Each structure stands twice: as structure tokens, then as C-alpha cells.
Amino acid sequence: MKEPNTSIEQLKTEPFAAMRIAEFRNLILGRFIFIMGLRMLSTLLGWWIYNLTNAPLAIGIVGLSEFVPAVSFALYAGHVIDLSEKRKLLLRGIVLYNAAVLVLLLLSTPLTSTYLHNSAVAICIFAVVFCTGIIRSFTGPVFTVILAQTVPKNKLQNATTWNQGAWLSASVIGHAIGGFLIAWAGNTGTLTVIASLFFIAFITMLQLKPKPPLNERGEKKTWDSVKEGINFVLKTKELVGAISLDLFAVLFGGAVAMVPVYARDILKVGPQGFGFLNAGSDIGSIFIVILLTFQPIRKKQGTKLLLAVAGFGTCIIIFALSKLFWLSFAALVISGMLDGISVVTRGTILQLKTPDHVRGRVMSVNSMFINSSNELGQFESGLAAKLLGVVPSVVFGGCMTLLVVVITWIKAPTLRKMQY
Predict the structure, then answer these.
(1) DSSP output for 76-127
(2) Does the residue 3 lie in any domain?
(3) Which of 37, 146, 196, 396 has a CA between 20 and 30 Å from the CA of residue 101?
(4) Taking residues 113-124, what's their average pLDDT?
(5) How far apart are CA 394 and CA 153, in angstroms?
(6) Secondary structure (DSSP) of 217-234
(7) Angle of CA points 407, 413, 419, to nearest 5°
(8) In this structure, are residues 76 and 226 in contact, taking their beta carbons and an 8 Å threshold?
(9) What DSSP line would sit under 195-209, residue for residue?
């Protein structure tokens, strides 16, 4: 008769608790395929733009092109997500992403290069990326919202770990395969594979059940609804601390944005080495996420989060100064392991602290700062590389990441002391 209490305790340590739910498996599989395509696309765009322009700043402009619309629409997207049927919204986003890839596919053909100069092709790519930023402001948060509606709350921590593991696994494969495909199949062949992956993801997501809104439509005006989500985040100190830490750490620690420059001009390892370097941090992340799935962090999660981000910044400095491929690769792998700890910890804090009725808006606020910090960090890296030089700019980013950790340690004791 003590079964319920035993079951709850077992769910905290049972590594396959969430994966026993069929719909969750479909969600994870679909997201895995979709993210793999997205990472292949980001790998391709960095390499493609740099070869079109020979300018590190152009890599940064790719990030800025996605950052501006993603942030601009994020708060409104959260309002829409909370009032919408989530499955339909997600499927619509995948279709629009595929349409953007088809436009890029056309731009990559020899026929286009005959009529357009490289600078014109680059401008068209920036325009397409701007459109994908709008799409991402809706699709990014809705994945997380659907996850919370797919598993019971007592399996949410385990589901979050599996979700991060799938995301990181897809990133590893997408980055690595993207580099190899660029070398073997060219830009056009790579984009064809990406379009196929998005189509498969769409078919997989069709298996999900509809996810109706938990709020009554028209209950609040749009701005009042948006403010409710912002106010909830601002009043929850653990969320503010975790979001701020990740925002500034990723903003200044975005060394991966300069990997095309390191691969071609500093380490001189070509597209194949570029693929490995791009995958390095994700290889480390997926290793640690698998470990955390079976051996989750059981205490002092806040302190370990801050220490992991500090280690991440140190690895970025090592990568910046390295002239050896194996050392650069190792630094990125270890940085990925440390980032994996922070990703799982932040994701769990976010899921456990957010009630269902504001989940879409809170996830959009999170997306606005966390996910978009990657693109803003990419722009910061490109701009800093132009002003300071590539190596000094990456060293600067790693040092600033360490400074962010020190400030957060002092100013956010609630996060530092948090346990769940």
C-alpha cells in the first residue's frame, strides 16, 4: 500500500521514466530530426557567408539578422502560443522553415551565381535568415510548452534531461554531418538534405495529439497578457538569475561563431576539420547529458551551474589561444561538457518554476534572452573580431564570461543557493 510514495521517489532517479510515454517519444524524435536540420543549416550559413564575403563581420551579421526579428516578436509570440493550439502552430512553423530552405536552395544553384554577384547573394541570405528569425520566435518556445503538456509534472525533470539530450545529440550530428556534406555535396546538396529532414520532422510531429490552449481566448488584452509573463519572470529570482547568467555568458562566450575563421585561416583544417570543430562542444554536451540522465545532480545545483559556466569561459580562452587542432578540439569538447551541465540545470529550473497557464509567455521571455543570445553573441563575435582581431576578440569573450560568473555569484545568492 506504499506504492505511490515509492513510485514518486523512483521517478526522480528512473532514467527512462519520460521515454515510456509514446507521445513524448514522438516529440523527441521529431525535435531531434528538426534540430539536426537546423544545425546543419547554421553550419552551412557560416561557411557559405564567409566564403562569399571573406569577412568575419559577415558571420556576425547572419546572427544579427536572426536576432532582431526573434527578439522583436518574442513577447507577442508567447501571447499567441498560450492562446493557440500548439501542435498546429508547431507544424506551421516547420513548413515555413522548409520554405526558407527552398529559397536558399535556389540561391545556391550555379544559375543564381551566373546572374547575381556574391554580395547580392549574401544580402539575399541575410533576408532569408531574417524571416527564419520571425518563425523561430514562435517555434522555439512552443516545443518546450508542448513538452510540459505531454508528460506529468513528476516526470518533468527527467523529460527535460531527455529533451536537452536529444537537442544536443542533434546538434552534434548536424554540425559534423553539415561540415562533411559541404565538402562532399556542396551547398546545394547540403540544403537538399536539410529540406528532406524538415519534411520528415513534419511527418513525425503529425503523430502528436492536439494541444489546446489552457487560457480562455480573449481573457486579457494582448499587452496585459504579455506583461503577466514578464512580471512572473521578474518576480521569480531564480529565473532572473539563470536567464541573466546564460544571456551574458553566451553573448561573450560565442567562440563557435568564429570557428569558420579558425578552421580555414588559423588551424587550416578545411571543411572536414570545420565540421569536427563545430561538433566539438556538442560532443561534450551530449556526453554529459547522457551521464546526467543516469546520474542527475542531486544537490547544490545553483552553485554547480555557476562553476560550470566559469569553466566554460576558461575553455573559450584556451581555444582562442590554441594553434593546435587537437587542443582546440579538446577545449571545445570540455566547454561543451560544462555547458551541458548548465543547459540541463537551467532548463529544469525553468520548467519546475513555471505554471502551465503562463508557460508560453515565460518560455518566450526565456527564448528572447537565452536563444537569441546565441545570434547576438555571433554578431558581437564578428564585430569584436573586426575591431580587435579574431584571436583577441575570442580571448576577450572568455574573460567577460568569467566576469559575468563573478558578478552573478555576488548579486544572485538565490540562484547560487538553489536546490531542487
Answers:
(1) HHHHHHHHS-HHHHHHHHHHHHHHHHHHHHHHTSHHHHHHS-HHHHHHHHHH
(2) no
(3) 146
(4) 86
(5) 40
(6) TTSS-HHHHHHHHHHHHH
(7) 125
(8) yes
(9) HHHHHHHHHHHTTSP
**Secondary structure letter of residue 182 according to DSSP:** H
| Residue written as grid cell 554540425 | 175
Chain position carrying cell 509567455: 361
Query: With contact defined as beta carbons under 8 Å apart, do 11 and 158 qualify?
Result: yes
Percent composition of the chain: helix, strand, coil (DSSP 3-state, to 5): 85, 0, 15
Domains of the chain: total: 1
d(CA 167, CA 171): 6
Give the whole-angstrom CA distance, residue 130 versus residue 62: 8
Percentage of residues of the chain with pLDDT beyond 90: 20
pLDDT at 221 over 60: no
C-alpha 152/C-alpha 290 separation (Å) is: 22
**Mind listing the pLDDT tens digit for each residue in 77-89?**
877 887 888 899 9
363, HSE (Cβ side, Cα atoms, 13 Å): 29
Q: Using an 8 Å Cβ cutoff, are 159 and 144 in contact?
A: no
Q: Which grid cell sits at 174?
A: 548536424
- pLDDT reading at 137 higher than 50: yes
Average pLDDT along the chain: 81
Alpha-carbon distances, residue 109 vs 118, 191, 194, 206 (angstroms) = 12, 11, 15, 32
Residue found under cell 575570442: 394
- The answer to whether residue 8 sits within a structural domain is no
- Residue range of the domain that includes 383: 16-211+222-416
Torsion of CA 348, 317, 332, 388, to 10 degrees: 100
Question: In CATH, what number is assigned to the domain containing residue 185?
Answer: 1.20.1250.20
Helix axes 118-150, 325-353, angle to 10 degrees: 40
| Phi, psi angle pair for 85, to nearest 5° | -80, 115
Pick from 34, 28, 61: nearest CA to 378: 61
Per-residue pLDDT tens digits for 22-76:
899 999 999 999 999 998 998 899 889 888 888 877 877 887 788 788 777 877 8
Residue 235 lies in a domain: yes
| Per-residue model confidence as pLDDT tens digits over 153-190 | 778 778 877 887 788 778 777 877 887 788 888 889 99
Q: Which residue has the higher pLDDT, 413 or 367?
A: 413
Is 170 a member of any domain? yes
**Amino acid at residue number 140:** G
Give dist(CA 43, CA 183) in Å, integer.
12
